[in-house]
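Complex record, two chains
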Amino acid sequence: MHEMSLIKGMLQIIEDQAELQGFSKVKTVWLELGKLSHAEPESIRFCFDIAVQNTLAAGATLEIIRTPAFAWCMDCAQKVSIKQRYDSCHLCGSFKLSPIEGDKMQIKQLEVI
Amino acid sequence: MCTVCGCSAKTEAMSNNETLSIHHDHDLVIDNTRIVKIEQDILSRNNALASNNRALFIKRGVFSVNLVSSPGSGKTELLTRTLTDLVDYCPMTVIEGDQQTANDAERIRKTGIPVTQINTGKGCHLDARMIGRAVMELNVMPNSLLFIENVGNLVCPAAFDLGESRKIVLLSVTEGEDKPLKYPDIFHAADLMLINKIDLLPYLNFNIEKSIEYAQHIKPDLNVLQISATTGEGMEAWYDFIRAGHTAATRSIISE
């Protein structure tokens, strides 16, 4: 996945927040990346370090919070953990699973000056 | 007072909280940072623009479809046939997306339907901002159909909502049956799967039932139609889908 496009989205959010919340430099970014989300952590890290050069987040540390994936099994009628999107339910073997957690890509908080 | 060395020298410009950085040279850096809570999705900007597009389509009674697939699955051929067969049905417009060239837009233009080509350059997908701008350029009419042909890519378009009414994933029988398992995100995001080039089945080992089974592992309620954009086989069911969507879209403005 083209993580650079996502990092650009992150930078836009950070720049908007800098205006709204009155800060001029970012030291740390905490990013939640769910296991089912559309991004690969190592590529995100790589692209982040490049993209933040000459921005208010230049040199910032990126802390990635990986969150586990859960789905709702329509046959068991309960929440089950999954490793990948197309897994079957580990309890009943059904494929009728609807992902409910683990697909977020969210900036949680920033450490700013 | 400098809280590092305890000296009391202080300039008038310094407040009580300011310390060493102005008149001392210490290795220590005083931490005047703070934590700012954000809790915003990275794609929130795109999603907001997509919502704007969606609201505009609903307001104008426009039924819009976002066609996604690998390069070469037959999206443009599907579109040219659809536009030709439905030419008298209602006003239609097309947004074409490719990295480079206006070749696809040229093919569409030959059908007489208004089209705009977006070249993404190094970009690998269309996004909501691009669609918003194209819609303004095209002046999409009320009660019309809008077809968006995305960049040929089974990975990235999955994450980028354009504000479309429906996302259609195209898989041709010259590809592998297990594409849905290899590229689950796009099949999960789709509202309809079209299996194309079925006229070539006699020459291939493609197992249609397996392909549908794989797709429905990823998305249990995914509807599947089998078509050939070249021969026209199966296209009527696709047109029924479009007409039903269009009717629903136009009814929703009447009811407001």
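Note: Chain B is about 35% helix and 20% strand.
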